[in-house]
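In the current project phase, work has continued on tokenised descriptions of protein folds. One protein thus recorded appears below exactly as we store it.

——
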Amino acid sequence: MARGTRPMTARPRSARLVVDERATVVEWSSEAEKLLGYSEKEALGRHVSLFLDQEQGGTEADGRIAVRHRDGRRVVVRAVVDTLARTDGPPHWTVRLSTASDTAQDEIDTALLRALLTDSPLGVQVVDGDLRLLRLNLSGPGVRGAVGHEAIGRHVRDIAPGLVDETVEQKLRHTVESGQPVSFLHRGRPPSDPAHEHVYSVTLLPLRDSAGRAVGALVASQDVTEGEQARARLDLMVEAGARIGTTLDVRTTARELADAAVPVIADIATIEVLDGVLHGEAYTPGPVAKQTRLRRVALKSARELAARAAYATGELVEYLLPSHIAGLTELHPILVPHLRHGEVPADDPRTARIRAEGAHSLMVVPLAARGVLLGLASFYRVQGPDPYDESDLVLASELCARAAVCLDNARQYTREHNAAQALQRTLLPRSAPIQSAVDVAWRHEPAQSPGDWFDVIPLSGARVALVVGRMAGQGIDAAAAMGQLCTATNTLAAQDLAPDELLGRLHDMVTGRSHESTDDPRAASARNHMQGASCLYAVYDPISRRCTLARAGHSAAVIVDPQGKPEVPDIPEGPLLGTDHPPYRSVDLQLLDGTTLGLFNAAPAPAKNAGPPHAAQILGQILGGDPRRDLADSCDAFICAGKPTEDEGSLVLLARTRVLAADRVATWTLPPDPAVVAEARTMSLRQLADWGLEDLDFSTELIVSELVTNAIRYGTGPVGLRLIRDQALICEVSDGSSTAPHLRYAYEADEGGRGLFLIAQIAHRWGTRYSARGKTIWAEQVISGPDPTGPESMPTNRPDQ
């Protein structure tokens, strides 16, 4: 304790003393001793003036007097003197002294009680230890006009049975017995409004007497219904913002709306949308016609109900009430507080379910965004006895307005996604081209990002090119970019470029396009989607059985030999198209007849030195399990095993190699002497006779003569002549020069320059391809009639089924 500080002692509220007719103290109470400091022994027999403050005359204003404490302190008190009658002598007087400060505190306490129990807007009740009412504020919330003074003395549960339940009673008893205050939120129906549930903030305070014994509890409550409703509405909107619209799918968004509404708003919620919304169709702003059909996309019921649906998800739904039609044609939410059974049509399949579940109140809210109607949301109340009111309708409308924006976003995405997939389908192969190099099959599971692409491209010399790729990004712009890459790949493949050179040309094209400036946002977006695309390009030659592969950031291929041994070849990985810097490098493989080559699009491969990607392992197991299995079945097995997601999709292209029989190829090496041209014609005609293609003698003789003559005249080194009997008759002439021939249109007076022009007129198609040793000029002629060599040597291609 600090120096000079007096200890705090309890001051008595009232002191009593008795004086006789001579003003001598004859009784002195312990409270008087505490007030003035004199003990009973010191005070008895002394004149009462001894205790008065003589300097101030013993009086103060307002009937107060000044007394002197034993330690000399001056104390202002109020004195009340009463006559004490005696039968055995003269009268005595009782003097009650109370401090002025205590009297002021009494007045404050009285005013405080009056404010709490009369004027306060709070609900205040005082109960005893048996929870019987002692005092209450008749103006408090929940009792105004419903409870009077007759409630005094009754048990609190008997006064407000809808408000005070077992939980509140237990908390009251705990407060009385433990002496600990308790605060909590409580829901109940007050006597003044038994038809509606209210929310109260309740505080329980223990009451103790001067000895510290429990005598009861003070109950203070405040009606916070509006605040709680506002907070609940805000919480619902915040939660709905996080739960609704997590995907760009109409059905999923509708289910999320139903999940958010049950059980907070409704016990049963049904969501129906206009049929065209599911397909991304856009309706005109404003109400729609009464004949518009709705399709159910979501239904949700409280767990306690587990309501059975009258209409299954995906079914067309008829109108139940005029309110449904009004919601469509007026775009206004409709409130049906009391859903009477007579109002619903007896022949509607929902009527029986409504009666069985006991739904008694309904709200119908149109789902409209940006002025465009998308559908209707119906909310049924079953468990709560209260009907829906305007505040419920406002809350439901706010929730549906937010969900409608998400639904419209999903609808717009669906429209663009459908357009992108339609564009993708038109750009991708629908059937396998005619060629004899491989037996092919594919499966393509479209993804949300329609950027997967593939192709099977017949090349010169009976060869075939296989290509798969994946675009970066999504949407119709990605599909357009994919079409541009497909076209560019076919154009470059027609030039008989090697796989590594073809990828380098694609890379240059994408890089060049990335630097172009354009004001068209669609063109810019498509250009950006090409940058970062991946690609795997393979060329197979059925004569040499050589397969050359190169890749630009794509997953490697899977090769399974005829005995079922899988292998993931080490194909050097080049950069994604339009990124980093080439070169691209290729790898050459010798494949046996019946080898299966698998190309696929899957998730990105793991880091280097981590082994083959998971998709390659799956494909290798499928193809290796049965090497002769039908390719279409293997494609299906890969798609099922891979379980592609909607975002990634899946693509697999399988090719089983064929080897062109030796008797279908004739090869000669000729010296660079003009005299051998006649011999070349003779050998060619003899071979055509062996193949039964005498109807092509004249045209073939002309083609061989012209190509061999040009090779001897303008080329270097020995001249190679090769005839291939495939789907077409192919004539190839090679030499050691890399100089490309040019087609000329000679004048009538010119002595030469008509050779290639004549070949172009006679042949079905012709071209030039280059190699490390020179070039090869080739020309194809269509073969009419059946194949004289028999059907066994002509494989059948299997398109996607």
In short: DSSP finds 18 helices and 32 strands in the chain. The chain has five domains: 15-105, 120-223, 229-416, 428-657, 663-793. The radius of gyration is 50 Å. Residues 81 and 95 are 5 Å apart (CA to CA).
